[in-house]
Design a protein that fits this description.
The protein is an alpha/beta fold. About 50% of the residues lie in helices and about 15% in strands. It folds into two domains: about 130 residues, Rossmann fold; about 60 residues. The strands form three sheets. A four-stranded parallel beta sheet has the order 4-1-7-8. A two-stranded antiparallel ribbon has the order 2-3. Strands 5-6 form a two-stranded parallel ribbon. It starts with 11 loop residues before the first strand and ends with a helix.
């Protein structure tokens, strides 16, 4: 989605967590169901079917209330360690994408913006320790901005923290609606479908 040439020194890459890793929600539901003595279907209905995660993503529910509410909904007093373990088993890093991030870092600043509770950003070293060497402290959960993708406000608030402008930023996400939200906010954007297509887009932007 090239609109104009970019100045590389001003450009940041903001991939979502789902671009950096494959997310297996059924595996997460199965892990939680085993803890709670119920079924994966019941876990899904209690959390995602009820829209509970949406409130956490937008920061409407703080981290403490989120964890307590999570346990109440699944009928089990879930601890932070258990929540993190369930989240961890659901994520598998994409080595080819990480290799592309390493190459991009030679030319541009990189950051992560994921729709999640602040617990993900706060505990990223336990969830995905491989990300810290690549992104440093530039790992952000939408809840910290009180808005979630695809809301343009989420992108703009993240850019304010990064001290970047929309027109100097390339955003990468696997969901079409999030890509559309980024474009509405004035960013360049690419929808992730494969490492090969991402590499081509990065070459188009002269980032690798």
């Amino acid at each position: 989605m090239l609109r104009k040439p970019l100045k590389l020194a001003d450009l940041a890459i903001e991939p979502s967590a789902e671009v950096l890793c494959a997310y297996d929600r059924p595996a997460r539901c199965a892990y939680l169901a085993n803890l709670a003595g119920t079924t994966p279907e019941a876990i899904y209905t209690a959390i995602w079917g009820a829209g509970f995660e949406t409130g956490a993503d937008t920061g409407a529910i703080d981290a403490q209330s989120y964890l307590r509410g999570y346990g109440e909904r699944i009928g089990y007093p879930l601890t932070l360690d258990e929540w993190l373990a369930a989240r961890r088993v659901s994520m598998t890093l994409r080595p080819q994408v990480l290799d592309l991030v390493r190459r991009v870092r030679e030319k541009a600043r990189v950051a992560v913006l994921t729709n999640n509770t602040t617990l993900v950003a706060e505990h990223i070293d336990r969830l995905l320790p491989e990300l810290r060497p690549l992104f440093g402290d530039a790992i952000y959960a939408s809840a910290g901005f009180k808005a979630a993708k695809p809301d343009p406000i989420c992108f703009r608030r993240c850019l304010d923290v990064l001290s970047r402008t929309p027109g100097s930023t390339l955003f990468i996400d696997d969901l079409a609606e999030n890509v559309a939200g980024a474009v509405e906010a004035g960013l360049f954007a690419h929808r992730y479908v494969s490492p090969e297509a991402l590499a081509a887009a990065l070459r188009d932007h002269d980032l690798i």
